[in-house]
Amino acid sequence: MTIKPLLDRVVLKSAKAEEKTKSGIVLAASAQEKPQFADVVAVGPGGVVDGKEVTMYVKVGDKVITNQYSGTNVKLDNEEYTIVKQSDILAVVE
């Protein structure tokens, strides 16, 4: 199965959460912060959203930084994805 986002939505696969601090302390799963870095897996076509034309600036394969708690988490085929609006993406990492 695949996820095909609509309009200005983007499907992201988050980077793995840090399991240790820099000083070597092992973090419990509940203490791990949600990563802000993610890879773009799928991109919607853009179009007219709320009466405004939306152009998609990200593409599949881009590495991006997002708001930490934005989007909707989805689990598909034992993989976790986050679906966000393009406006929730803060930057593309090059």
Structural account:
This protein has strands at residues 9-14, 37-43, 47-49, 52-54, 63-66, 72-76, 79-85, 89-93. It has no helices and eight strands. It has a six-stranded antiparallel β-sheet, with no helix packed on it. Strands 3-4 form a two-stranded antiparallel ribbon. 16% of the residues are buried. It is globular. The chain starts with 8 loop residues before the first strand and ends with a strand. A hairpin with a 2-residue loop joins strand 3 (47-49) and strand 4.
- Cα shape: globular
> DSSP strand (E) fraction?
35-45%
Instruction: Write down the Rg.
Output: 15 Å
The ordered H/E elements are EEEEEEEE
Measured between the Cα atoms of the first and last residue, the distance is 29 Å
Tell me, rounded to a whole number, the average pLDDT: 85
Residue share in helix: under 10%
* Largest sheet properties: 6 strands, antiparallel
Count, helices: 0
Strand order of the largest sheet: 6-7-1-2-5-8
Q: What is the number of beta strands?
A: 8
Outline the low-pLDDT stretches. Answer: none
- Structural category: mainly beta
